[in-house]
Amino acid sequence: MSMQEAVTAAAAAVCTALQHPQEAHSAPAALQAVLPECVHVGVALTLDGGACRLSSGNLLRPPHQASLMTGPSLASTVCKDRKSKLLRQVAPHGGLEDVNAIVVLSGCGAIVCLPLLAPAARDTGAASCSTADAPCLGALTVGFASVANISSGALKGALLLAHALAKEQREPLQDLAALVASLLLPAGGAGGADADAGADSDGWASDLDHLGWDEGSEEGTPDEDASGRSGGRRARQHGRSRGGEPGGPPGAGGAAAEHSGVALALLAFPTRQQEAGFAAYHAAQMHRVDCYAYVICFAFFCLELFVPGTPFFLAKRMGWRALAGYSGIAPGLLLASKRTRGWFAKHRDAILAYTWAFSTLWQTAMSNYSHVLDRDTFRNPLYLQSYGWLTVVGLAFQMRFSFQVLAAPLAYAINTQLLPAICEAFFEDQPPRRCVAVGLLRIFLHGVALPLACCYVFETHARRLFLRSSAHRGSRVLRRAA
């Protein structure tokens, strides 16, 4: 099947899913053939001249739950501007209804939204039809786990699908929008136009990087008038009857708050897609920290190997085999090139797990350098009985807590098997059992408990930012999709 045939089939499947939700089982396969990297595909149809929108929900997960949206949304901004938008590092907040729902329910880390611009007339050629004259049927929203998943092929597939929906499925979509408007909306409209106007006067500019909502707001713009609020109440009532949840996507702020409490307490989101979105967000935020960690560890290892006059000078005492220690920090070279940074971010947990594993095995194989260092070095309180490396690695190379809570105790259990021999060789003036017991407790506190406590605090903060960051702090427009 050619690309054009796949796009046509996907557009027909989307239209069928919107008209007959009970027959939506064929939509996921058809959409994955065109957009294999996406985790969310939704369509928002314009109702009542743009006063409100019918949101399809995620068509990749039938049965999808359709709902009405009357407040500010990414789809309404795209339809009004008639320009495609690309958002990265998105997080639920109190401003955009559809972004709230997509992030909470689908776990997306990046969103592409395209207007469905139909030709002005059937017999009018594309060359003679300007974008301003083309009626906007709605918007196509495609969500990805992270911005790294948005390839040129994915953008091309999204553009072709939007074009096919607007051109080939124009009449069915318009008929569906008219039917829903006649059944659910009063004759005077939903009042959403006033709400949008109030939003525009409150700082909603045409480009998403100028959006200025209040991250503490959960109900739309503060200047929304009575008609807008009544439209929002009607939308929540329809969402309750059609979606099974109070408010559907407009209630995503409450869902985000509930999920936020669970996430901050357990450091785990309820869905795999949402956890994958946070993993991509966390890896992107930790990029600079990882760079500093590898650079600092590289500098310290060079100091231990090559600088004369230090207690180490391992290159002289161990010879060329000491250079094998660089293998543990070699993955840091991936951060030096823009071409490999994305791969590092995608596989960050596995790479840092390798660094942890190599450091543990290297230190254990080298007996924590007990055979090359003198007695005074080991007895120096700052050397921490040769177990300071656990603290350095634990604080510098911070994986997500779910990984580090396993890695740190495992490294502790493996490497502390050397402690009885170290106590016997360098702390002969202390009772062996007391030396080992005190050493185990001290090493656990500074090598396991301290790094894990810091990791927990830092990740809690990162998850809070992921859930609550406003557009001007956590959501930026990189470029236009078209």
Automatic annotation (TrEMBL):
<feature type="compositionally biased region" description="Gly residues">
    <location>
        <begin position="244"/>
        <end position="254"/>
    </location>
</feature>
<protein>
    <submittedName>
        <fullName>Uncharacterized protein</fullName>
    </submittedName>
</protein>
<feature type="compositionally biased region" description="Basic residues">
    <location>
        <begin position="231"/>
        <end position="241"/>
    </location>
</feature>
<keyword id="KW-0812">Transmembrane</keyword>
<feature type="transmembrane region" description="Helical">
    <location>
        <begin position="292"/>
        <end position="314"/>
    </location>
</feature>
<feature type="compositionally biased region" description="Acidic residues">
    <location>
        <begin position="215"/>
        <end position="225"/>
    </location>
</feature>
<keyword id="KW-0472">Membrane</keyword>
<feature type="transmembrane region" description="Helical">
    <location>
        <begin position="351"/>
        <end position="370"/>
    </location>
</feature>
<feature type="transmembrane region" description="Helical">
    <location>
        <begin position="439"/>
        <end position="458"/>
    </location>
</feature>
<keyword id="KW-1133">Transmembrane helix</keyword>
<feature type="region of interest" description="Disordered">
    <location>
        <begin position="208"/>
        <end position="256"/>
    </location>
</feature>
